[in-house]
Amino acid sequence: MIKPGKVLSVERKQTRLSITTENAQATIDVLTASVIRVRLCFGLLAAERNYAFQQTTWDDLTDPVFERRQRLAQTSFAVDDNATHIVLITAKLRLVIDKAAWRLSLFSIDGKCLHQDLANRALFVDSNQRLTHSFSRSDQDRWLGLGEKTGPLDKTGLRFRMESTDAVGYSPSSGDPLYKHIPFLLRAGASNAFCGLFYNNAWPSEFDLGATRSGYWGEFGSARFDGGDFDLCFIHGDSIKDVITGFTHLTGNPPLMPRYSMGYLGSTMFYTELAKRSDLAINAFIDKCNFENIPVSGFHLSSGYTTGEDGKRYAFNWNTDRFPQHEQFINHFAQQGLALSPNIKPGILRSHPDFTALESEQAFIRSNNGDVHLEQFWGGEAAYVDFSAESGRLAWKKRLKSSLVSKGIYSIWNDNNEFEFADTKAMCVADGLPENVNGMRPILSNLMAKVAYDAVREQHPNVRPFVLSRAGFAGMQHWAHTWSGDNGSSWAYLKSNVCTMLGMSISGVAFNGMDIGGFTGPAPDAELFLRWVQNGVFHPRFCIHSANSDNTVSEPWMHASVKSDIAHAMQFRYRLLPYLYQLAYTAHTSGSPICSPLLYHFWNDELCRDQNHDFMLGDACFVPAVLDADMQTKLQYFPSGETFIDTTTGHWFKGGSSYVINTPLHQLSWFLRHGQWMVMSSDQTHSDFEFIGALSDSIFSFYWDDGISFDYQNGAKLELELCLRQHKSGFELSWSPVGQLSQWTKAAVVFKIYSDRGCPMQLLCASANIDQVLYEEQWKACDEGFWFNLDTQCIEIKLHASHFDDTGKLLFNFENMIAVSI
Which residues form the Glycoside hydrolase family 31 N-terminal domain (predicted)? Predict the structure, then answer.
């Protein structure tokens, strides 16, 4: 066992401290007042070469790779280097290092203990070269994060393995490890002491959060890595939200995805495995969607389209029996306004017709003797592309462009990209500092996604790419959507996947979802399929995908008994798209999740901390879990201090109590959070926009653009800030727009405002009276006006979009019928 030993010297250089100990070298970087990075190497520190950080304060070998990486301004901090300790102080944090025996302690500036290394056992390398970091903890702590994991959101008392693997058939309750490798923890300690720990180490690892007990060491946790340096970022915040957004900023906010990526994405392996004319089968699927009134935005093209004459899959190859005219097929999709997402795998079989060319282009990972390294892959021995080498990235990008992107493909589906290696002696180029492949595997998944994103941007500069990746490391959200891998078609998988994806959401990965209906196993029965769809429409990614074991295909119309309910739910998904798109924009600009567990919003309500399946979509939409068979009613708890509105009945539920709610099979279950707003549309074409809220003081924003281009960066967008406040005669709604869109000016603008004060006596807009109508059919037919829905106690208002070209106000008068100048 080797420990760092005593501190020998300390040197300050702008935003960095350099520290030498008896057996190690260390640096401490202050990125912001709330983010401190500690890096330690047993031996000499190598040059900085980092793949996860999108915010830095140092020169890095990968700066040319990450051209949009943000260089942070210098943050002021003080250092007290005394006889026993090094104390680093920022405006938010105080980091203390014991000089006698390397031990880290972190405190908030107001004195809360955020982290403390375990005394006498803080950091060491064992005889197998494994690095272990041990820290004190309390059984009262809550531990969140670690990305894609089965089990509850709270990881306290559990042990997890971090290592990307092709986990088909994983146990929905205890499968571990899975596809992603995100070594990020969030500790929620006593007195709301919140701290994130991001280990910038991609080696296979194990996190023990209380599974191991010891009479010697007390309550402790540990992170053990099979190799690599100690590289830990502390991320502090006053709330769980602050920590998560801080981690997301550090590893990269998601791009603004094209709007179609949040629509229904059809998919199944069945069609691309047909002997002939897969293209006709897929086109027939789209026609069937139209016939059944199922809105659809694209299709995921499974890897069968690449099958060669020997039945093996060859990346970038088009099977001419299945797709005799693939360019015509792609164009046909584009003419319908649909996206096509072809499946691509990074393993190149030895028999691939392009293998020799790729080898000559230095595209592959090699063994330590310099030979191309071969591993078992789909169909036999294959070489993996080395995405940590510029030559590998260029070779892959060239083929992406020539075979797919130049043909009109804007979306790439990266699959089977866990980079599993049985031989641990293979080496990656790693942009100039060669690295054992075990320290790079999940990073290669991220880089593969980045190359796909860049290929589309270079070929089509004004089209937003849409990349999907099954595997990845911390920061994968900066380029790609993801999903929960090869799940199964059972109630257990449905419940597990909801929790797993919520765990991804609070680990920085906002755009996630699952294969609705299950990927493997027999076809889901009608009730399971319907409930899965009804829950899935509220997740960022909505895709029905299957490889059913009973020769069936999971499709929206698969069960006649619930076909109309499925269609209703999927039509609702498109009504919801304006709100989802608003959340996508917020995720892009602020790093916040789209779906999130209740503890993210309502941490102070202890009853919400153990809720693993109820969730919030944004701040406004509460989605109760209806994830069991024969569930016609549910005893539902609502978070305390809040009020929630059933928009179907107009019933208000005061939080802090449980109520029996109806959950019939045909009904979508969701509630509007009082004081928050949603923007929806009455149809999938978004010919109107419905602002849905309640009569209470509130502020909200609306964002809209063309959904596909980068023109929004040059001002082709609409940002509408709205404020509802109490007024002497009732309420006043004011707005202020930024920008203008032709699509917006053609739309109807509708407000649906749930009122606990009944119907207003008068509505005025720009001092002009808004006519009241008494019948719903009159309101639907009029260009402008309002009516009061007595059943739901909702004020429904229709206005011309032109009112919102400039700042304006809408007055709700609940007093006498008199004109009030505004």
Answer: 26-208
pLDDT digits (tens, 9 = 90+) for 139-151: 999 999 999 999 9
Distance CA 196, CA 246 (A): 9
Distance CA 424, CA 92 (A): 42
Q: Please state the φ and ψ torsions of residue 87, each to the nearest 5 degrees.
A: -120, 115
User: Boundaries of CATH 2.60.40.1760 in the chain?
Assistant: 7-251
pLDDT in tens, 98-128: 999 999 999 999 999 999 999 988 999 999 9
d(C-alpha 455, C-alpha 545), whole Å? 26
Q: Where are the alpha helices (DSSP H) in 576-662?
A: 577-590, 598-601
> 815 pLDDT band (50/70/90 cuts)?
confident
Record the tokens describing residue 156, joined without a space. 């306290």
Tokens 């069945």 -> residue: 270
Output the CA torsion sign for 157, 246, 590, 514. negative
- How far does Cα 311 stand from its chain's mean position? 35
Q: Please answer whether residues 260 and 310 qualify as being in contact, where contact means their C-beta atoms are separated by less than 8 angstroms.
A: no
Distance CA 137, CA 222 (A): 10
Instruction: For domain 7-251, give the CATH superfamily.
Output: glycosyl hydrolase (family 31) (2.60.40.1760)
Banded pLDDT at 816 (limits 50, 70, 90): low
Q: How far is Cα 244 from Cα 35, in angstroms, rounded to an integer?
A: 12
Which residues are CB-neighbours of 27 under 8 A, at least 6 positions away?
A: 16, 17, 18, 19, 37, 38, 39, 45
Task: Please tell me whether residue 167 adopts helix, strand or coil conformation.
Answer: coil
Helix (H, G, I), strand (E, B) or coil at 132: strand
| pLDDT given at position 746 | 73
User: Where along the chain do the CATH 2.60.40.1180 domains lie?
Assistant: 678-813
Instruction: Name the percent of the chain lying above pLDDT 90.
Output: 92
Separation between Cα atoms, residue 251 and residue 235, nearest integer Å: 12
Cβ atoms of 245 and 279 within 8 Å: the answer is no
By DSSP bridging, strand 347-349 and strand 374-377 are unpaired
Q: Regarding predicted confidence, which is higher, 740 or 155?
A: 155
Tokens for 659? 């109520």
Q: What is the pLDDT of residue 50?
A: 98
Encoded amino acid at 663, one letter = T
**CA dihedral of 683, 775, 666, 628, whole degrees rounded to 10:** 100
| Percentage above 70 pLDDT, the chain | 99
Average pLDDT of the chain, as a whole number: 95
CATH class of 678-813: mainly beta
| Chain mean position to CA 183 | 16
Cα distances from 98 to residues 5, 82, 104, in angstroms, run 10, 10, 7
CA Rg value for the chain? 28
Query: Average pLDDT for residues 169-174, to the nearest whole number?
Result: 95
Which pLDDT band, with edges at 50, 70 and 90, does 217 fall under? confident
190 vs 512, residue with greater confidence: 512
